[in-house]
Amino acid sequence: MIRGFFRRPDISSVFGALAVACSFSMHAMAADVNINANTQYQTIRGFGGMSGVGWIADLTNDQVDKAYGNGDGQIGLSIMRMRIDPNSGAWNQQIPAAKRAVSQYDAIVLATPWTPPAYMKSNNSTINGGKLLTQYYSAYTDHLLSFADYMNSNGVPIYAMSLQNEPDWHPDYESADWSGADFTNFLLSQGSRFGSLKVLAPESLGFNHAYSDPFLNDASAAQHVDIVGGHLYGTTPKDYPLARNKGKEIWMTEHITNTEAANDWSNAIPLATELHQSMAANFNAYIWWYIRRSYGLLTEDGNVSKRGYIMAQYSKYVRPGYVRIGATEMPQSGVSVTAYKGPDNKYVIVAVNTSSSQQNLNLKLQNASATSFVKYSTSSSLNLGYGGTYTLSNNAASVWVEPQSITTFVSDGNGDGGDNGGDNGGDNGGDGNNTIVVRMQGTSGEESVNLTIGGTTVGTWTLGTNMTDYSVTTDLTGEIRVAFTNDATGRDVQVDYIVVNGVVRQAEDQADNTGVWGNSTCGGGSYSEWLHCNGSIGFGGVDGSTGGGSSSGGNDGNGGDTGDGQNADGISAVMNINNEWDGGYCADLVITNESNSAVTWSVDIPVEGSVNSLWNGVWSQQGDVLHVSGLDWSSVLEAGESLTSIGFCADR
Predict the structure, then answer these.
(1) Is 549 left (phi over 0), alpha (psi -120 to 50) or beta?
(2) Interior CA angle at 405 toward 402 and 406, to 5°?
(3) CATH number, domain 434-541, options 1.10.10.10, 2.60.60.40, 3.40.50.2000, 3.90.180.10
(4) Short-list 277, 276, 278, 207, CA closest to 243
(5) What is the pTM for the complete model shown?
(6) Which residues pair with 389 in a beta bridge?
(7) pLDDT of res. 633
(8) Cα 323 from chain centroid?
(9) Rounded Cα gap, residues 419 and 366, in angstroms
(10) What confidence tens digit (pLDDT) does each residue in 132-183 have?
């Protein structure tokens, strides 16, 4: 993407909200939107934008807050994309805004290189394309991993690492030329070195599958890629079944619909259509180009633009971890709808109306229930305008959407969540205290998986080819294992995570995996979501009282669970290492109030080494015990609430 300075006259943002009474009867011409919670598609990883520091001025603290905060007048982004400068001496520029987005708002970071250092390339230049020379494959990997280590050690853990920006574009600024074969060869040579750091490729200009099909069709190369990323220049969002069938997430990592002023409504509303198309195409994430620009989500004066409010119709309410569910996609001419399910059976419906007239819709929930929907709309005259509350009758509500608008309907939550998309076959262990949800998919749709607690089978399922939640409730206690039992050609299982009494345990954080293929043998690897052979992943234990127990991750590599603390007043803490190097490590903390009432919390955690920095908390260390308490805004946890914004780094 060219990084020129596009400037247009600003149109002032309108921050007022229009409250509209919502006591409408069923309209004879209303179109039905059937929303089925048992039809599940992709997990939403988030929505984001590019921090252009190094090319343009960095985001200020206030601008980070407006982009990544989720309060009034804020967009609710959850992903920050940043550039990897070929000069390591400039890496410090990336820290301030990213650290604030991560520490204050739990954003995740995608790091993208536009070019390797010049000496590694065929043209000995960082611009005008040029290929990465094969003799520098290892040095280039060192360069990328050094960036990840540097950022992690400064409080900015890298969630995903891209290998190259727009390998099919040959401009007169930072760039490099890669082919599909180049990606395959690089992954075969260097892919195993990235460990638990998620690898994204190929970020081609227009989601050109010629750059990703080769490595997806090479099993040895494909195992080293977690995310297939691409841009939308010269194309429109389209499903990518090959990537999904290989168990890869699909991210749209850069686009601008046009460079006209972001507050011009006729130029802004195409973003709503593109966001809908991206979600309907099974994309897990959508990332805009520069966050702050005349055409950006924030204008140059730092105010939220119309494009920003359009993004917020998704990003504020369809949060990371939500799952897209079945919905009538085009109930009326000019109207496009997607629907999502979140925690506590909360449902979100987003409707884009590009027609010139008001449209009436009947929202009908199937295999789900809710009591009401709250309406928020953005149009030429509204910015996330509150549109009242619709009460459901017989699981349905008649609603309306304004012409040329995007509208989000948010349910009250805690309704019926359907059957979680899977047949909960087998012995469920009774009606006990422990609820366990396993999120997984197969590559062929014939894979058989068992869930065992303490050696007893409590669930048996035959998987489909879409990520689906499978749940059991049991009074059994002991070690939790997810086992693949019918390995055959074309059959593999991908386990995203399990949820134990509301606490998530990621599969890639577990050291005990006897079914992943690695080092030329079954069970020869660890820290993987994959079961390639008959085998199982151990997820630690469950004790029958809370989601505590122990997660079995080790401390070797990124993401290992290294310890936990249980303190007075029902406060627990889990520590997850997100980065390690010879002289130290960085870790995230998850603080949970497991009591039945609000608590002003503090926690003592056993740690290794000497803590040198901690963010979003007050801390002290005595020996190998780290004492942590909250700041003014985070000192009190409600019953069942978790705090995930605290982390620290330590020297060994």
Answers:
(1) left
(2) 115
(3) 2.60.60.40
(4) 207
(5) 0.64
(6) 374
(7) 67
(8) 11
(9) 11
(10) 999 999 999 999 999 999 999 999 999 999 999 999 999 999 999 999 999 9
Q: Is residue 399 within 8 Å of residue 392, measured between CB atoms?
A: no
Q: What is the DSSP string of 625-639?
A: EEEEE--TTTSEE-T
Mean of per-residue pLDDT scores for the chain = 86
Return the CATH fold of 46-320.
Answer: TIM Barrel (3.20.20)
Give me the catalytic one of 166, 203, 249, 402.
Answer: 166
CATH topology of domain 571-651: Immunoglobulin-like (2.60.40)
CA distances from residue 37 to 251, 348, 416, 612 in whole angstroms, order as listed:
23, 11, 9, 46
pLDDT of 28 reads 37
Closest CA to 111 of 119, 102, 103: 102
Which segments of 154-196 does DSSP mark as H helices, in order? 180-190
Number of neighbours of residue 610 by Cβ within 10 angstroms: 11
508 in catalytic set: no
pLDDT at 545: 41
Q: DSSP E strands: which ranges in 284-384?
A: 285-290, 323-327, 335-342, 346-353, 359-366, 372-378
pLDDT at 140: 99
Catalytic: 203? no
Q: Which of 174, 203, 249, 254 is catalytic?
A: 254
What's phi and psi for 538, nearest 5 deg?
A: -90, 130
Check: CB of residue 282 under 8 Å from CB of residue 45: no
Tell me the domain boundaries of the chain: 29-45+323-416, 46-320, 434-541, 571-651
Residues 6+ apart with CB under 8 A from 135: none
Give 633-638 contacts, CB < 8 A, sequence gap 24+. 635/600, 635/601, 636/598, 636/599, 636/600, 636/601, 637/571, 637/591, 637/592, 637/593, 637/598, 637/599, 637/601, 638/593, 638/598
Same-fold call for 434-541 versus 571-651: no
End-to-end C-alpha distance for the chain, whole angstroms: 42
Annotation: CATH topology of 29-45+323-416? Immunoglobulin-like (2.60.40)
- pLDDT digit string, tens, across residues 177-233: 999 999 999 999 999 999 989 999 999 999 999 999 999 999 999 999 999 999 999
Element spanning 279, H or E: helix 265-280
Residue 331: cis peptide before it, omega within 30 degrees of 0: no
Cβ contact 411:35 at 8 Å:
no
Q: Read off the pLDDT of residues 243-259 as tens digits, 9 standing for 90 and up.
A: 999 999 999 999 999 99
